[in-house]
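[DERIVE STRUCTURE TOKENS]
===
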Amino acid sequence: MKFHVICFALLATLSSTIFGQNVSNELAQKNILAIEDYMQGFASHNADQMNAHYADGIDNLFQDPVFSTPLSSLKTKAMWQMLLANPLNFSVSYKILFGNEKIVHVSWVAKYDFSATKRHVLNVGQSTFLMNDGKIVKQADSFDLCSWLKMALPIEKSLFLCSSPELFRADMANKLDQYIKLKN
């Protein structure tokens, strides 16, 4: 598990334990329902439904193994639009593991055919959401990038990129920037 996910989980546990378990069940429920709707949007390939749950104007909103630096809310929303525009054999299952007034933690499995190679991917991961009044203000996703590369790409290319993930990350960042330019 990545350090930032552990920190989010620790913060969530401490906030419930130190400040009282039932600080705001109503706010916790609001956050859980928001993430439930977000994940249903993901499962139904609906980027607009997902994006409605992000706070606007956040510089470091989304981080995952694909991108070397956190994405802003604008780039995060564009990323979901790009990734879910033409899904191939796409399905998502998920389970909300934890939720309180600040944090919601979800495990998920995404199955799909990677559009560039048509190779089947089974991506198992976790997302930790930092919430503010029902809106996502920070999201940290974790999954094994090298395993993903080995499923999505031919073996020679995936092994090379596993040893040099910064090349893959730069390519994905460039593709996202190009997508945003085309949309604007």
